[in-house]
Write a structure and sequence with these properties.
The protein is mainly alpha-helical. Helix content is 69%, strand content 2%. It comes from Halomonas colorata.
Length: 218
């Protein structure tokens, strides 16, 4: 896997990344991915791909679990069915890219990112489902933002693939938020703001192991 090493030209590349992202997504996240994470990604290209593949598989699993748990919600069933198919396709595509590049797929321990968000999930529905859907929106939004931030530093093949993912992950983020708002007549903006703040803390605080959703290098 080829990633252009060297000094980040931050201003130009942030503008380019922002141009790829839906305005609603940029407004949703509290912060951008720190440049130090990008530098970390550049020296861990194999782990980037391996953990990306695991993230796609986990995203499909999350969608499937929602399909099984909430069988009385037609819109959720439709959205999650489509999302699960797309995430599994992305998993297959990443694994295919890894095989072409001689990267062996293996298990990696999870970052603290998803668990750091899920530990705040409330116990009973509909509050539980609202929280899970907000977290889903955040994970998809951050994934989308990181794809966009990485694109200027990737080889042509991988950059082209990540551009397609920006579009689909951006749509997934919007679907999750739509479903979250559908669960109640009350506004959930305060709950969204809570999780957005938790997410920003996770991606800007130190981590000892690089992962696709890790924070900055310790």
């Amino acid at each position: 896997m080829s990633i252009q090493l060297g000094v980040l030209e931050t201003a130009d590349h942030i503008v380019q990344a922002d141009d790829l992202l839906p305005k609603s997504l940029n407004e949703f996240l509290a912060c951008q991915t720190p440049d130090s994470w990008l530098q970390w990604a550049m020296i861990n290209p194999e782990i980037l791909l391996i953990d990306h593949a695991q993230c796609e598989k986990k995203a499909a699993s999350t969608a499937m679990s929602l399909l099984y748990r909430y069988v009385d919600q037609p819109l959720l069933l439709s959205k999650m069915s489509q999302l699960a198919r797309e995430e599994l396709l992305h998993f297959e595509q990443v694994v295919g890219l890894m095989e072409q590049r001689g990267v062996k797929y293996r298990h990696l321990t999870a970052s603290r990112y998803a668990e750091g968000l899920r530990r705040h999930v409330r116990s009973n529905d509909p509050e539980r489902l609202i929280d899970v859907l907000i977290i889903g929106a955040l994970i998809e939004a951050r994934s989308c933002e990181r794809f966009a931030r990485l694109i200027p530093y990737l080889d042509e093949e991988l950059a082209k693939f990540y551009r397609t993912l920006v579009k689909s992950e951006g749509r997934h983020f919007e679907d999750y938020l739509l479903l979250a708002r559908q669960q109640t007549k009350d506004l959930i903006d305060e709950r969204i703001a809570f999780f957005v703040a938790q997410e920003a803390e996770l991606v800007t605080s130190p981590d000892t192991a690089f992962r696709f959703h890790s924070g900055v290098p310790a």
